[in-house]
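Form 12-C: Joint structure prediction
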Amino acid sequence: MPRTGAAEPVKAKGGRTRQNILEVAVDIASAEGLEGLTIGRLATQLAMSKSGLFAHFGSKEDLQLATIDTARSRFISDVIRPAFEAEIGMARLWKLCERWLGHVQGGVCSGGCFFAAAASEFDSRPGQVRDRIAEIMNEWLGMLRKAIIESQQAGQISTDVDPIQLAFEFNSFELGANWAFQLYGDQQAFGRAREAILERLRRHATRSGATLLPPADKQRRRVRTKR
Amino acid sequence: MPRTGAAEPVKAKGGRTRQNILEVAVDIASAEGLEGLTIGRLATQLAMSKSGLFAHFGSKEDLQLATIDTARSRFISDVIRPAFEAEIGMARLWKLCERWLGHVQGGVCSGGCFFAAAASEFDSRPGQVRDRIAEIMNEWLGMLRKAIIESQQAGQISTDVDPIQLAFEFNSFELGANWAFQLYGDQQAFGRAREAILERLRRHATRSGATLLPPADKQRRRVRTKR
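Section 2 - Result
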């Protein structure tokens, strides 16, 4: 997946636009943390004056909050919008999970999952920044749970399944993959997370739900065909 | 689980001992991050002179490395030693997982899982500190995998199971529980992680392995008994 436009922001008349600035800010915050995202650091990166940036953002906290919302917009256009093109139920649920792992693996943000990093950085620092991160992550978990419930209502996932438990497990796999990728550069971890999610979906799928998932053990079958 | 002695370090003759200092350092680093752990911050907390601390640790990096190894020692005495009292195989594997979740939930470190926080903080900062964190986490994952393989060798877990995949999933659940606890104060997440691990162990257990796990649906059975 190619990196988004953040690497080469366009210079607008009278300086960079607020949007251009924020795209760069998301990249800095992903790699160096939201606390590392000072107006001075951003000014250096953009070769802009600090006063020019202060015209856009009154304080470091304003800048952090605007950066978080820009990361949220990227997530929506990269993960949620494409998933919502799939039919409601299992197809959408699987697409949400698949795009989500792709979003983190694809290096859309240079420092891995923006929100995993931001949550870990701010979880013990009360304030508006932490609250906004918690709110956005809750929004996402709520969306995952809703997609599970919709799959149950469509008769595609067994109603024995607890949507809260399943969403917790899926979120854990994403965190686990991001963690292994960040710490060890372990690309295979995304495959493990994908496999773990698919295994759960297959196990809980009804017959009609199972037809909406990618076929199991593709590789193994390929080997058998060759023999 | 009561907090360890770090809260009230004993003053040794000629000042605090290196060990006392490091116990306080682990608490600071857990709550405020390893980067927040400066010699100045530690001197204030301990009401010691900076020069007194420099006698113990030559640099901030030395202090960070010594703090990481102190956190590792806590983990060994709180999680690994008790688990190694259990018999090799499924009993030990389950005990490792159970103690691990208890270690994070019990607030032994005031900022949640020390290593999850440290890994997230340093994963994009190359250097000795990052390398040491990665090494310790790898040591732990290796121990989990070994306990799974030993359970297979003891005929207690099906040999169809991939130990690397299962260890990845267990590690993910711990990260997921720690994340939910840190961000939302969600204590229930530990129960979810425990349930997810137990469900997997039960599903892959042989008949002899299953007898070594806690009985399923204890609560539900209790409700039935009351009726």
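Section 3 - Comments
Residues 128-153 of chain A form the longest helix (26 residues). The interface with chain B takes residues 31-33, 111-112, 116-117, 119-121, 123-124, 133-134, 137-138, 164-165, 168-169, 171-173, 175-177, 179-180, 182-184, 189, 192-193, 195-196 of chain A (CB under 8 Å).
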